[in-house]
Amino acid sequence: MKFEAHRGVGTEYPENTFHSVRAAIEQGYDVIELDVGVTKDDVFVLLHDDTLNRTVRKADGSAIEEKTNLSEVTYEELLEYDFGVWFAPKFAKTPVCLMVEALSAARDAGVKIKIDNKYRRFTDTQKAKFFEILAEWQDVAELTCFDTDMVREATNAFQNMNIHYDGLVSDEILGEIVKIIPGERLTVWLPYRNKYTSWVKVEFVNEKNIKYIKDRGAKVGVWILSEYSELENAERMGADIIETQGQIKPIRNKGVFADMHTHSRNSHDAKFPVMDICNAEIDAGVKIMAVTDHCDSFLCRDYAGFDMYSNIVASYNEATLADKEVGDKCKVLTGIELGEGFWNPAYTKKVLGLVPYDVVIGSVHAVKCPLVEGKTGTKIAFSQIAWENVSEKEIADFFERYFDDILTCVQTQDIDIMAHLGCTKGYIVRKKNLNFDLHPYEEKIRKIFEVIIRKGIAMEISTSPYADTGLFYPDEWIIKMYREMGGYLITMSSDAHSPKKAGDHFSETAEMLKEMGFKNIFYYEKRRSYQCTL
Q: Contact, 506 vs 494, CB < 8 A?
């Protein structure tokens, strides 16, 4: 079965941009479905809607939302628009992608580009130019049509191009189509009944209509799938290709463990060289690791003379050297754990510009919440709080603020992964022998998940507390809730501060995730996501 990426990998990258196209290629999709629009000066670009929106700053500093239509804008004017910042900060200043840029990348990678049928909106002159360009890309490009006239037009124009049909299916219509184009060049698409296709009016896929289409020599595509149970049904029914927004992945790096959160002597609370951690990861069977030394805002503001910037650069350099030294035994990635970055945006911006990280983790280690004897969590990490002296009411108040801060973190920070949600529990269990119930904060956690799913931020599963508490961060019921909400971007983390914790209990974690229905874990390189099939 083949896999098609809807508008590129639109769940992890801004759709219909070169970012999403490149991700589909890197993650192993066979076909990339894209939308094409045309500018005022007849340049063909990737865009789903013709309406353009941008924020314009006036001379007085105020901002207004400006709307226009693609047909009223030249390509040069279109380059002034940002097509990535709406999705996540790291995609700021993403330019519009030319159709030929996507086709060229696909040709180099040996994958296909399926162009949606929105080209029907082109004028006759624009369509003639569109077809003239595509004639040079028949080995890569494929067209989608929704009626027999479009099928006939595309088939007459392109003698070697595959055609996709996604309109009404009947004996009469399909019979006419297979007379126009040979079945081996035709894929007929049917929707899978779910929330993404509830609006369609054509017949939904079933075994009977799949057999009907295949009996006429054509292939069958099924769209849009987001759950592996839907994929299994499509496979059972005999589909040839499925379309997904990115939730379903081709098999890659099967059985490979990636530890995306470790610390070295370049963190204030660790003392081991990167190579010591790396060798321990290799012994634990981990093939990919990220060195993500601490950069906590409260430390940098409150500890006089603490030079965080030098530590960050040292961490980057040490990890880079370790990667070269271990060769193919373990990929060593560079990163940073950015704590409370939203407290000091200017400082955070400087930190993120110091070195080219592979991964940026967002976390909260301190909360602006009064606790014991008037002390405040602002000046100390909650790992240092004497939880045995804190009342359950104070703990409840603490968690109210903690989850609010996590929400602010994921809403405002330029991060790839949200770290160890609810990690304060481990300290409370150890110091107070209290497994504090987080169910009262379910709605706050749900809001956090809504943001990270929309922005393509991964959720970390930390094994750090498992050995002595039997817990994961976050709680298992929270992980299940994330899964039920459609979350699938998961990273595994030991949060190792010493070699003995490297890759700790990863096998058990992988089994738990598989039982919950997760099919992949992820790692980040150059701030791009890659799957490892469980």
A: yes
pLDDT at residue number 201:
86
Which tokens hold the place of 482? 């994330």
The first and second tokens of residue 387, run together, are 């939880």
Continuous H helices in 327-367? 345-352
End-to-end alpha-carbon separation of the chain, Å? 19
pLDDT > 80? residue 305 = no
Beta bridge partners of 333: 290
Query: Contact 38/44 with Cβ under 8 angstroms?
Result: yes
Q: What is the pLDDT of residues 115-125, one digit of tens each?
A: 999 999 999 99
Asked if residues 451 and 410 have their Cβ atoms less than 8 Å apart, the reply is yes
∠ CA 408-414-420, rounded to 5° = 60
The CA-atom distances, in angstroms, between 248 and each of 87, 209, 506 are 20, 24, 22
DSSP code, position 92: T
Contacts of residue 128, Cβ cutoff 8 Å, sequence gap at least 6:
none
Q: What is the pTM of this model?
A: 0.93
440-484 tens-digit pLDDT: 999 999 999 999 999 999 999 999 988 888 889 999 999 999 999
User: Residue 226 in 3-state DSSP?
Assistant: coil
Which tokens is 203 given? 């017949």
In this prediction, residue 306 has a pLDDT band, given cuts at 50, 70 and 90, of low
Complete domains list, the chain, with CATH: 2-244 (3.20.20.190), 258-533 (3.20.20.140)
- Mean pLDDT taken over the chain: 92
CA distance 1 to 29: 11
Residue-wise pLDDT tens digits, 359-402: 999 999 988 765 544 454 555 778 888 888 888 998 998 899 99
- Between the CA of residue 126 and those of 62, 272, 435, what are the distances in Å? 38, 63, 65
CA distance 409 to 148: 51
Residue 176, CA atoms < 13 Å, CB-side half-sphere: 13
Helix (H, G, I), strand (E, B) or coil at 486: coil
218 burial level (CB within 10 Å; 0-12, 13-18, 19+): buried
H, E, C per residue of 489-501: CEEEECCECCHHH
